[in-house]
Design goal:
- This protein is α/β, with parallel strands linked by helices.
- The protein has four domains: about 160 residues, Aconitase, domain 3, CATH 3.30.499; about 110 residues, no CATH class; about 110 residues, Aconitase, domain 3 (2-Layer Sandwich), CATH 3.30.499.10; about 140 residues, 3-Layer(bba) Sandwich (Glucose Oxidase, domain 1), CATH 3.50.30.10.
- About 35% of the residues lie in helices and about 15% in strands.
- It contains 22 helices and 23 strands.
- The strands form six sheets. The chain has an eight-stranded mixed beta sheet, covered by helices on one side. A five-stranded parallel beta sheet has the order 11-10-9-12-13. A four-stranded parallel beta sheet has the order 7-6-5-8.
- α8 runs parallel beside α10.
Length: about 575
């Protein structure tokens, strides 16, 4: 028998010694040994018996999971209360799949789904509707109270329960979540203690408008990692009461902090329960500081990698709702899509669009007038887990776009802001016919496709392979440039702030112009640098190149134009996004 370091009650020692069976002894040993790793002094009683499990998917290769569940079932072991669990991985009715897709999902990837759901039911699954990542919503009803001790997993649910509800739960792994719900006890450490709930970061939001929840959460998560942030300035936009809007916002914000970092608890000044009660007393002395303004959020957004093979193509599948949408968010998205289609004069969404929400929220929504309105747009409604859906290798052929930072992090999906997602869905080009005026350096007229770099372009690193290899196209070879790497810029319009790197830069530009593999135009948001300037001059005079160059187009130009946009360049330095 494992000799525990923590103090156990006589009942707990009896379980550990096997008096309630070998399987219960293993469960107790697992929980105790885990707690000892974190120097937990004891096991503390779970006060909210309704657990939430992260593992909802019957992936065939997870044989230890199913064998462990078999042992629990054979020993007739049950959780103290009924539990909810993360969403199912597929939904053939509402998320259309080919026959090959279905084969991969049902026979290969999630071949044990039915078996696993039966195992969960025997242990204590609440009901067939219990599959959601937002168990804490009122429609679902698994709602802990402030101060409750939980045995939950699912990063977005744990951070919501800790932060918005004021419950107490560590970032548990799958299986540990279930074991704590069976025993009714969890190790006392981390977020279960007052000390563990102190904030070590003061985050100051200084944006000109309400920040995109998923980007703000992402920025904070990547900065503080597993630490606890105390966020100031957000109550300016969310208010001081946890209404429907604030709950939806914090759900998405928290999911991004947890998936892009490892945040399990945050405090929002004047809004979340402990922040309202204790205010700055939650901050440790000499807390680190992180200021977030518009520029910082834009930097974070622009640095998200684009994982598609062809970065210039548009998305062909949209997922909205990861984590699952609240009822209010579902209604709001319905109105936005329906009103947007009226604006663009289209009857249906122009790209396959799937909104996801919990089964209980979907049932409520179906009883409202909004459901018929949403269905009339051609969008689909599902309770799927988009993240698990993308585990199918065949989805790599789909160009998925999303406003979920969690889905972006765990898949090849491309992240866009909510407004951009809406414009894709309704067929509205957000930047259509927007004009910018710059200083003409080398004149000309042109209509072509844009390729955009938000960082300085290292000319030598970008074109070295094309020049040395005498290539017929200029494919960017600078791996340090996430925006451009692997893209063919020949005869495109290269949009950039400036060029950087080796002083051979001017000669490189002259050379690619002579090879006729250069961009057709260079559009600079800032004043042209000396290396690019010399290259343009050398190319125009010595190679008789028609390359166009315009500078001082401004920061907004580079924030607005996107790779793949069609641009029109006029003689007077006007650039139009078509």
């Amino acid at each position: 028998m494992y000799e525990p370091k923590m103090e156990l009650t006589s009942e707990q020692r009896d379980i550990l010694s096997g008096k309630k069976g070998e399987t219960m002894a293993k469960i107790m040993e697992t929980v105790v040994m885990f707690g000892d790793m974190f120097e937990a002094p004891r096991l503390i009683k779970v006060t909210h018996d309704e657990g939430h499990l992260v593992t909802s998917f019957g992936i065939g290769i997870c044989k230890p999971l199913f064998s462990t569940m078999d042992r629990l079932n054979e020993a007739d072991i049950h959780t103290k209360g009924k539990f909810t669990v993360d969403p199912r991985p597929y939904d053939y009715k509402n998320v259309k799949c080919s026959l090959l897709d279905k084969l991969v999902y049902s026979k290969i990837l999630f071949s044990q789904q039915k078996r696993y759901e039966a195992q969960l039911t025997k242990v204590g699954l609440r009901d067939p509707n219990a599959f959601t990542c937002t168990s804490y919503l009122p429609e679902v009803g698994n709602i802990p109270q402030k101060g409750d001790i939980l045995s939950w997993a699912e990063s977005s649910a744990v951070v919501f329960a800790n932060s918005v509800l004021g419950a107490r739960c560590n970032r548990n792994s799958g299986m540990l979540d279930l074991f704590g719900s069976i025993l009714g006890y969890v190790p006392e450490f981390g977020f279960l203690t007052d000390k563990g709930r102190k904030a070590t970061w003061r985050v100051i939001v200084k944006t000109s408008k309400i920040p995109e929840a998923q980007i703000l959460g992402s920025a904070i998560g990547m900065k503080v990692m597993e630490d606890v942030p105390y966020v100031e300035g957000l109550d300016k936009y969310l208010g001081t009461e946890l209404n429907d809007f604030a709950i939806g916002y914090l759900k998405d914000f928290g999911a991004a902090t947890a998936s892009n970092g490892a945040v399990g608890l945050y405090h929002i000044a004047n809004l979340t329960p402990e922040a309202k009660e204790f205010a700055e007393k939650l901050l440790v002395p000499n807390a680190k500081e992180y200021v977030i303004d518009d520029a910082e959020l834009e930097r974070v957004y622009r640095e998200y990698p684009i994982m598609w093979k062809d970065k210039t193509k548009k998305g062909n599948l949209v997922f909205i709702g990861c984590p699952h949408l609240t009822y209010q968010q579902l209604c709001d998205w319905t109105d936005k899509i329906a009103n947007g289609l009226k604006e663009t004069g289209k009857k249906k969404v122009v790209v396959r669009t799937i909104l996801t929400s919990s089964p209980d929220v979907v049932e409520k929504f179906k009883k409202s007038e909004k459901h018929a309105l949403l269905m009339s747009t051609g969008a689909k409604l599902s309770s799927i887990c988009p993240l698990m859906y993308t585990n199918n290798p065949l989805t790599k052929k789909k160009r998925i776009i999303t406003s979920s930072n969690k889905l972006r992090t765990y898949s090849l999906a491309r992240y866009y802001k909510d407004e951009e997602i809406l414009n894709f869905v309704i067929g509205k080009e957000a930047n259509k016919m927007k004009q910018f005026k710059g200083r003409v350096l080398a004149s000309g007229t042109l209509t072509a496709e844009a390729v955009v770099s938000h960082q300085g372009v290292n000319t030598l690193a970008s074109f070295q392979k094309a020049v040395v290899g005498n290539k017929k196209n200029a494919v960017i070879s600078d791996q340090g440039n996430k925006d451009l790497y692997g893209l063919d810029v020949t005869n495109k319009i290269l949009c950039l702030p400036i060029t950087i790197g080796s002083t051979t830069g001017g000669l490189v530009i002259q050379t690619i112009c002579a090879m006729k593999i250069a961009p057709a135009a260079f559009l600079f948001s800032e004043h042209i640098d000396s290396l690019a300037g010399s290259g343009i001059v050398l190319a125009r005079i010595w190679e008789n190149s028609p390359v166009i160059a315009i500078d001082e187009l401004g920061k907004e130009f580079l924030e607005t134009v996107k790779t793949g946009d069609k641009l029109e360049i006029k003689e007077d330095g006007t650039v139009v996004i078509l």
